[in-house]
Structure formats: C-alpha cells, structure tokens
C-alpha cells in the first residue's frame, strides 16, 4: 500500500498519516502534514445561544509522543505539487504514488490460492 498526504492534512489527516507510517503499512508520499491534532468539542453554550470551544483532546504516538501537534508528520517520499503542475492539470504526488505502488507490487509475490477439495458442510450419511 501507499498513502498520499500533503500540507493541507490536519486533525484526522495528521492522525491517519502518522498512524499509517507508524504501522509500517507502506510509504507515505507527499508533503508534511500541518500538525493540528488537538481536538475540540462544541458543548459550552452561552445564554445568547452561541457556543465556545477550547482544546480538549490530544494525541500521543509511541514514536514521537505528543509531538505531531504543531509539527505534523513527514512523508517517507517528499513530492511537491508546484503551481505550474496545478495549471498544467498534473499531479506529481499521484504519479509518484502510482509508480511506487507498481514497484511494490512487482517486489512482493502475489498470493495464489490453491483451495484443494471443497469442504463438505452437509450432514454425514451414516
């Protein structure tokens, strides 16, 4: 597997990107996430009907502790999308991710099932 991320990924995007990388599921490709993982809960209502929020939920990871907040997660393979790429309607991050996925597919053997005889799930005749 490969995963794409960029500097616009925050909150759950930060958490997913860091977890994908931490679990070793495959390379993370793109740009560093923005590092905003402290969550809020809009539950404090004021008498005029407005709501206040404050940071309440933080995330800890076994490799960096609390330090995804205010930093983000670095990709394994850094690929930027430049303004000229956007104008030309090209996506170098996606292109690199496809190339990396194809390389990994060639590198790892495929599982070819050999089911053999089918199990007999009916009642046995005595």
UniProtKB/TrEMBL annotation:
GO biological process: proteolysis
Compartments reported by the entry: Cytoplasm
Recorded superkingdom: Bacteria
MF-aspect GO terms: serine-type peptidase activity
Positions of the UniProt region annotated as Disordered: 107-126
Record-stated family: Belongs to the peptidase S41B family.
Primary location class: cytoplasm
Species this chain originates from: Dictyobacter kobayashii
PANTHER family tied to this protein: TRICORN PROTEASE HOMOLOG 2-RELATED
Keywords in alphabetical order: Cytoplasm, Hydrolase, Protease, Serine protease
UniProt cross-references to Pfam families, sorted A to Z: Peptidase_S41
InterPro entries the record matches: ClpP/crotonase-like_dom_sf, Tail-specific_protease, Tricorn_protease
Location of the Tail specific protease domain: 1-79
GO CC annotation terms, alphabetical: cytoplasm
Keyword Lipoprotein: no
Designated name of the protein: Tail specific protease domain-containing protein
């Amino acid at each position: 597997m490969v995963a794409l991320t960029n500097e616009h990924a925050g909150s759950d995007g930060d958490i997913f990107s860091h977890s994908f990388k931490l679990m070793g599921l495959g390379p993370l490709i793109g740009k560093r996430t923005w590092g905003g993982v402290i969550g809020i809960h809009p539950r404090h209502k004021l008498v005029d009907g407005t709501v206040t929020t404050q940071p309440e939920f933080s995330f800890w990871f076994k490799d960096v502790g609390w330090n995804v907040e205010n930093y983000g997660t670095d990709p394994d393979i850094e690929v930027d999308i430049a303004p000229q790429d956007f104008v030309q309607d090209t996506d170098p991050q996606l292109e690199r991710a496809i190339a990396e996925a194809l390389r990994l597919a060639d590198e790892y053997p495929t599982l070819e099932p050999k089911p053999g005889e089918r199990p007999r799930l009916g009642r046995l005749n005595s």
